[in-house]
């Protein structure tokens, strides 16, 4: 990880997005119930708040798991849930990108 999130075309978007594994962390005081769903909710909130924009590449699930101290399967489940919501998509060899979505 280079300390920033890259857009789909490779430009750094340092000024508009936090370094997820270093700066963004779920608010543990708000995690209730299933941890993966709570993380998914907070990733969705970050996307809808504009911290992550369409085309931004999220850090790897492993990097997030290592940074937060969760098992990789927990982060995988969170990403899968956010993808089910239509906000992100994983691409082989390219990582996970934030999709262009309609704000509701």
Automatic annotation (TrEMBL):
<dbReference type="InterPro" id="IPR036388">
    <property type="entry name" value="WH-like_DNA-bd_sf"/>
</dbReference>
<keyword id="KW-0238">DNA-binding</keyword>
<keyword id="KW-0805">Transcription regulation</keyword>
<dbReference type="GO" id="GO:0003677">
    <property type="term" value="F:DNA binding"/>
</dbReference>
<feature type="domain" description="HTH gntR-type">
    <location>
        <begin position="33"/>
        <end position="101"/>
    </location>
</feature>
<dbReference type="InterPro" id="IPR036390">
    <property type="entry name" value="WH_DNA-bd_sf"/>
</dbReference>
<dbReference type="Pfam" id="PF00392">
    <property type="entry name" value="GntR"/>
</dbReference>
<dbReference type="GO" id="GO:0003700">
    <property type="term" value="F:DNA-binding transcription factor activity"/>
</dbReference>
<protein>
    <submittedName>
        <fullName>Regulatory protein GntR, HTH</fullName>
    </submittedName>
</protein>
<dbReference type="InterPro" id="IPR000524">
    <property type="entry name" value="Tscrpt_reg_HTH_GntR"/>
</dbReference>
<keyword id="KW-0804">Transcription</keyword>
